[in-house]
Every structure is written in C-alpha cells, then in structure tokens.
Specification:
Helix content: 40-55%
Oligomer: single chain
Number of strands: 4
Largest sheet: 2 strands, antiparallel
Number of helices: 6
Amino acid sequence: MKANTPELMKFKKLQRKLGESRRGIIGLLEGLWIEVARNSPAGDVGRFTNEEIAIMVDWDLDPDALVSALVECGWLDECSENRLVVHDWKDHCPTYVKGGLAKQKREIAIACTSEVEAIGTTSTNSAC
C-alpha cells in the first residue's frame, strides 16, 4: 500500500461506510490486493461472488454491503463484461503480476463504460 493511501478521501469514506478502524481498512485493502494478485491477476475480481470476495478479505459482516461500499468509494469498478474490476489495477498492481500476465499473453481488465473498451483476459480487446 502506498504511504498516502490512508489519507485519501476514498479511504476515509470507506472507513466511515463500513464503520471500521483505519487499521481495519488498511488490512482489508491489502488483503483484497493480495488475493486479487493471487486469484485474479487481471483484476477481474467480479468472477467471484460477493460472499467469496468477503471471504478473501476476512469480512464477517454483510458481503453485499462490503462490495457496495468498495464500489461506491472507488476501490472497485463495475463492468458489464467482468462485473467488477479493481480500480486502476493496471497502474497499481505489482510488477510481478504484470510480468506474469505478459508471459501468458493476458492483459489487465479495465472498467467498461460506453466510451471505454475493456481489455479482456485474452490478447483480443472486446467492447463493453
């Protein structure tokens, strides 16, 4: 986690929405990023259910409330193709994740909008 992340407004909003401590949100986000790197390195975390995402980050309360808060606060983006992708994963994922995807000829998923094309998990691009 970048040193200034806990100072971001979206961090503080997530903290408030979930009623969690600063330490708790740091752990939650780090846990999310570790699990995404391991289990969906393209950032396409939407292939997991909300319950599975909650399990990944050790969240014991309502999984839907967790995912909703992550989306509302800008940590996850909704996408018609992948359901959910990690916000700006392409810019912030670890270098080893980028290298592993490149070796597999896979690309990082990005959020889909009507104006943005999604980069799928294969080498071909697809529109949303």
